[in-house]
Every structure is written in structure tokens, then in C-alpha cells.
Design brief:
It comes from Oryzomonas sagensis. It holds the Pfam family DUF1499. This protein has 152 residues and is an alpha+beta fold. It has one domain: Kinase associated domain 1, KA1 (TATA-Binding Protein, 2-Layer Sandwich). It has three helices and eight strands, in the order αββββαββββα. The termini are far apart.
């Protein structure tokens, strides 16, 4: 009986630690004046609309119909085991991207005029992500590039 109780306590502690690593959903994300939220000073964020080189990443480029490209991105994110779409509005997607211990927040904004999708991805917690947000956005870029556009 004592062993079972200790196992329950240990599992409770581990669950609490894992929950603490995911952090709370940010309340400051979204689109303001056609722009995604700026990155914080820490290096654990990338943003295609960033004015500084440390955080800048290229947007996703596409040819053809903007809505079809955005539907392709949504389909791609829906197929990723590490992604959950949290918010969807016309031309805007917000997703949670998980690693073993952490949750990152990603945003995608359709930029019809530039035939691109602006991107932002940031860690909820910590200072450095060892480049994980940048690598993941590049993985998404490559998958988006080769994925066929869904038929409407």
C-alpha cells in the first residue's frame, strides 16, 4: 500500500512539473494593424515581420490562390503530431507546437498582397530554445513547399 501511495505522489509531482514547463497560453498574441506580435528580446522567438536579424525568418511563399495556400497550411498543421490549432479566423491561424517538455506558440497570417504567409513562433518559457522554433518553422516551410494544394 505504501508503494502505491508513493507512486501516486511521484506521478503527481511529475505531472505538475510537466504542466509547469508548458506555461500558460499568452494573451498578447494576434494581429494588430496587419502585424503579428513582436518578439521579446530573448532568442527563443522567430518572426517574419521582425526588423532585427536575430529574430527574422522568411515568410512562407506561395503561388496561386491565397485561400488555397492557407488551406494547404491548415491541412499541413492538422497532420503534424506536435501541433494543435487553437484559433482560426479568415487569414489567421494560431497553433500550439509541443516538444517533450515545452509548448511553443505559432501564428500564421495570410499576406495576400505579397503572396506569402507571415509566421511567428515563440517559446512560452525560458530564454533560449537552442534554435528549436527556427528549425521547426523551416520544417513547416519545406513541408508546405512540397505539399500539393487541396482542391476546393
Amino acid at each position: 500500500m505504501g508503494h502505491i501511495l508513493r507512486a501516486d505522489i511521484i506521478m503527481g509531482i511529475l505531472s505538475g512539473l510537466l504542466a509547469a514547463c508548458t506555461g500558460e497560453r499568452p494573451t498578447n498574441l494576434g494581429v494588430r494593424d496587419g502585424r503579428l506580435t513582436a518578439c521579446p528580446p530573448s532568442p527563443n522567438c522567430v518572426l517574419s515581420q521582425s526588423g532585427d536579424e536575430r529574430h527574422r525568418i522568411a515568410p512562407l511563399s506561395f503561388t496561386g490562390e491565397p485561400e488555397a495556400a492557407f488551406a494547404r497550411l491548415k491541412q499541413l498543421l492538422s497532420r503534424r503530431a506536435d501541433a494543435t490549432i487553437i484559433e482560426e479566423r479568415p487569414g489567421y491561424l494560431r497553433a500550439e507546437l509541443r516538444t517533450t517538455l515545452f509548448t511553443d506558440d505559432a501564428e500564421f497570417l495570410l499576406d495576400r498582397e505579397r503572396s506569402s504567409i507571415q509566421v511567428r513562433s515563440a517559446s512560452r518559457l525560458g530564454y533560449s530554445d537552442l534554435g528549436k522554433n527556427r528549425r521547426r518553422m523551416e520544417e513547416i516551410r519545406e513541408a508546405f513547399r512540397v505539399m500539393p494544394t487541396p482542391a476546393f
